[in-house]
Amino acid sequence: MVRSLLVLLLVVGCTKVEPGYVGIKVNQFGTQKGVEDFPLVVGRVTFNPFTTDIYKFPTFRQNVIWNMADGDESVTFNSNEGSVINADVGLSYSIIPERVPDVFIEFRKPIDEITDIYLRAEVRDSIARNAGRMGVIEIFGTRRQELLTGVEDDLNERLGPIGFHFEMVSFIGALRCDESVMRSINATIEATQFAISAQNKIVQTEAEAAQKVATARGNAESLLIEAEAQARANIVLAESITPELVQWKALEKWNGVQPQVLAGEGGIMPMVRMND
Length: 276
Known about the structure:
By secondary structure, this protein is an alpha+beta fold. Among the domains are: 2-57, no CATH class; 62-177, Tetrahydropterin Synthase, Chain A (2-Layer Sandwich). Helices cover 48% and strands 25% of the residues. Strands 6, 7, 8 and 9 form a four-stranded antiparallel β-sheet that branches. Strands 3-2-5 form a three-stranded antiparallel β-sheet, with helices on one face. Helix 3 packs across helix 5. The termini are far apart.
């Protein structure tokens, strides 16, 4: 009995598929095409190591960086003028769990080899295709994000049907190119920024001038309205004045003292007060 158990342990393998992973249990003598040959397994798995292999694929997001520091895994590509550009590239992607068998059938490799060999080549080729439609100034400036978005869309279109989902493609750090090209790029960017600054200054000056004109126009209109109102008031006042009204107003202000001077047709005559 004990001998039988020992023999069983020797011929039966055991492994565990951790959370966040999907295991592919592959019959070495299968057709490599049928679903029965590639069942998804999770948890603790027993298998015959002589006839079966277990491959583990992570289903959580994978982050990878290809840069110059790690054995120069950086990516080199050309602009539409032929300028050579070098970049450190970052990639975030995941494998759709139910599509893991399709990924395995397609590549028959562990996830690290798929990432560093196949996916890197796909990313490099996609960057080259998209960058080849742009100028070097655009790649370094206004169309950089457009380039990366185009690569991401390209990868999802090409590899999505297999089972990959690409979340982000990015350039890590500054792009690199020939020193003379960099000087030209920096000069162009500086000139563009100066032109933008000058244009902004013009717009600001025009806006300030327009504001002053608007303020002056408003003040003039305000004065005109006030003058027109005063003129209308004067007309109404003039039309309301009659000789009787003048006489009445004079009587209202008379203090009871007889005036010393009277104005008549012959001019001003002094008033002589007669004694009683």
